[in-house]
Design goal:
The two termini are 26 Å apart. A two-stranded antiparallel sheet has the order 1-2. Helix 1 runs antiparallel to helix 2. The relative contact order is 0.09. It is built from 6 helices and 2 strands; from the N terminus they run αααββααα. Helices cover 63% and strands 3% of the residues. It is mainly alpha-helical.
Length: 173
């Protein structure tokens, strides 16, 4: 809803920014926002859900990173869920494939989710995907498997909400 409102206001905001400068621009934008019943700080409301999720992400990370049950446990192609996957070994250096797969899934999901959004929003979303790659690259494979499964579910959700016509009209029985 907020993005649609911002999008409907883009034309006049661009006009004001192109034709006014400094204090005049600020005053014109403030008047336009007031006229539209909009405040730029309201755009941050959408980010509040992410702020509420951060403690849960940190708790899951800490819990899964130090879970004794993962020590030496294997799952499918992962030999030890408490250690980085090292699925590809090249010249005695292990390459962790699972974080890369997780990031690729995240990038595809982001491409679907950010379709039609401003470049600023896209850059932030893609930057977050790369940040997760950096942060989780050397993490235990059990934890990265968890995040990867999370990305699969997110990708499926984004496909349905963005690409399937009339998905919003479906009702749950």
């Amino acid at each position: 809803a907020m993005r649609e409102r911002q999008k409907s206001m883009e034309r006049w905001i661009a006009h004001i920014r192109n034709h006014f400068s400094k204090d005049e621009r600020y005053m014109m934008l403030s008047a336009y926002y007031r006229e539209q019943g909009y405040h730029p700080a309201k755009a941050l409301v959408g980010s509040l859900s992410l702020l509420f999720q951060i403690p849960f992400f940190m708790a899951a990370y800490t819990y899964l990173s130090h879970l004794d049950m993962l020590q030496g446990a294997s799952f499918l192609f992962l030999r030890d869920l408490s250690a980085p996957d090292r699925l590809v070994v090249f010249a005695s250096h292990g390459i962790n494939v699972l974080p890369v797969v997780m990031t690729l899934l995240n990038l595809v999901s982001t491409a679907i989710y950010t379709r039609g959004l401003a470049l600023r929003d896209k850059v932030q979303a893609y930057g977050l995907a790369v940040l997760f790659l950096v942060l989780l690259y050397k993490s235990p494979s059990g934890l990265v498997l968890y995040w990867t499964c999370n990305q699969v579910f997110s990708l499926v959700k984004n496909i349905f909400t963005k690409m399937v016509p009339n998905y919003q009209e479906w009702t749950v029985l």
